[in-house]
Design brief:
This protein is α+β, with helices and mostly antiparallel strands. Helix content is 27%, strand content 11%. The chain has one domain. The chain contains three helices and two strands, in the order ααββα. The longest helix is centred in the last third of the chain and has 15 residues. The protein is globular, with a radius of gyration of 14 Å. It starts with a helix and ends with a helix.
Length: 112
């Protein structure tokens, strides 16, 4: 639940933070975090200061529609050396070139 939260949020102290809100998506559509997710995020990322209220979407017109994990994640083929890919699904026509670039930067920062 932490990875989808990082993709959804855009807050200082959270990996992937982009200062200009016009350069990032408006969160993950219909994302509902578990009540303890702020505590779990802060345990992994001490610089984060997250509350449940931070998960409210800004209501813009360019949300992320879906996140999907691809690879051997959670299969019998998974090992400690396995990797996985996360697909971030958007409607490209709803994004400005700046938001597409901002999303790419955000995801690269989260990947670190």
């Amino acid at each position: 639940m932490i990875l989808p939260s990082l993709v959804h949020l855009n807050l200082p102290g959270v990996p992937g933070y982009i200062e200009d809100p016009q350069q990032v998506p408006d969160g993950v559509l219909d994302f509902k975090p578990e009540d303890d997710i702020p505590r779990r995020i802060e345990r992994q990322i001490p610089s984060a200061n997250v509350t449940l209220a931070d998960f409210a979407r800004r209501g813009g017109s360019s949300p992320i529609y879906s996140l999907a994990a691809m690879g051997s994640l959670a299969t019998i083929a998974q090992t400690s050396k396995s990797d996985f890919d996360i697909w971030v699904c958007v409607k490209k026509e709803e994004f400005t070139p700046e938001k597409i670039e901002g999303l790419a930067v955000k995801l690269k920062e989260i990947e670190k």
